[in-house]
Amino acid sequence: MTLFYAALMGALAVAFGAFGAHALKSMLSPDVLATFETGVRYQMYHALALLALGAARFQSKGILFLFIGTLIFSGSLYVLALTGIKVLGAITPIGGVLQIVGWVMVALDARRARM
């Protein structure tokens, strides 16, 4: 299932990136567009990471944290950029923390697997 979610996340990152580059470029200020692009960039980074972890058949609960963290991190940036609702900026760090926890869990599980 990791490969499925990774591929879906990657496809959506490309679609959102194209949407931002073409449809939103003339509608959003450069700093708001940069916020949107940050969401796309982090989504693609994590899609590629999940793809690699899934292809390697690596088992870690950290994978779930990476996935959910990315949904929250990138999703909140997308909604913030599109709606201007500033309170959503307070949600973004929660996604970032979940991503960090996910990476730490993956690292610890990888270390245990090699011992």
TrEMBL record:
<keyword id="KW-0472">Membrane</keyword>
<dbReference type="InterPro" id="IPR006696">
    <property type="entry name" value="DUF423"/>
</dbReference>
<comment type="similarity">
    <text>Belongs to the UPF0382 family.</text>
</comment>
<feature type="transmembrane region" description="Helical">
    <location>
        <begin position="63"/>
        <end position="81"/>
    </location>
</feature>
<feature type="transmembrane region" description="Helical">
    <location>
        <begin position="39"/>
        <end position="56"/>
    </location>
</feature>
<keyword id="KW-0812">Transmembrane</keyword>
<protein>
    <submittedName>
        <fullName>DUF423 domain-containing protein</fullName>
    </submittedName>
</protein>
<dbReference type="Pfam" id="PF04241">
    <property type="entry name" value="DUF423"/>
</dbReference>
<keyword id="KW-1133">Transmembrane helix</keyword>
<feature type="transmembrane region" description="Helical">
    <location>
        <begin position="87"/>
        <end position="108"/>
    </location>
</feature>
